[in-house]
Amino acid sequence: MTVTTVLRDLGVLLLMAAWVVAAHVGSAGWGNADFNAAVAVLPIAAALLMALWRLPQRAVRAAGVLALLALLAWLWPQLRHNVPLLYYLQHLGIHVALGVLFGKSLLGPGDALVTRMARRIFGHELSARKLRYTRGVTLAWTVFFFVNALVSTLLFIWAPPAIWSVHANLLTGPLIGLMFLVEHIWRMCVLPPHERPGIAAIVQAYRRESAQRGAGATRP
Questions:
Q1: In degrees to the nearest 10, what's the CA dihedral of 5, 10, 12, 15?
Q2: Fewest Cβ atoms closer than 10 Å to its Cβ: which of 13, 139, 140, 153?
Q3: What is the pLDDT of residues 90-132, one digit of tens each?
Q4: pTM for this structure?
Q5: What is the DSSP letter of 77?
Q6: For 88, what's the count of Cα atoms within 13 Å in the CB-facing half-sphere?
Q7: Is 53 exposed, middle or buried (0-12, 13-18, 19+ CB in 10 A)?
Q8: How far, rounded to the nearest angstrom, does the alpha carbon of residue 98 sit from its chain's CA centroid?
């Protein structure tokens, strides 16, 4: 691992930590409303700009950017007074999208999402035990994302914003880490050593799966 890679990874971690702190402060209603709204809107605006950038016509891209800026300017008074709602919609949208991504792969005759990643890791036919395990992990992640989205919604409706923010912004990451730990322990218990991929292999397989899905989405 090179120094450049270490510095890049450290920079990403610091940026993620800064984002978590900013999200918690904004969701709790502390600090400057305009700054909190700008930070909350940034991921949505960036995603829309990336989608516009993929359009082939330059004039259409320019018109889309101008329309986005005009929409933000028009909505800004409402956005700066509804920062917690912006973060809630992001949290809910990400969890529902991931829940649908994992859950949809369980429907129909094809492989479950984790099964597809396992095939990329091992490059050969999977045993029946491995197929059951990977399908079970896909189901577990599906339940996790939908349950976390439900808890987030209930807290956002009934709890103070600061309490919801603790769950959504401060605890979601550790909960995902705990989920990985539980899945790792389960894997150690039910699979023999030659059928257990390492963490690095799992991350690489997920990246390849995401890249393939992204390429398929942009292919005409």
A1: -160
A2: 13
A3: 999 999 999 999 999 999 888 999 998 888 777 667 888 888 9
A4: 0.79
A5: H
A6: 21
A7: exposed
A8: 7
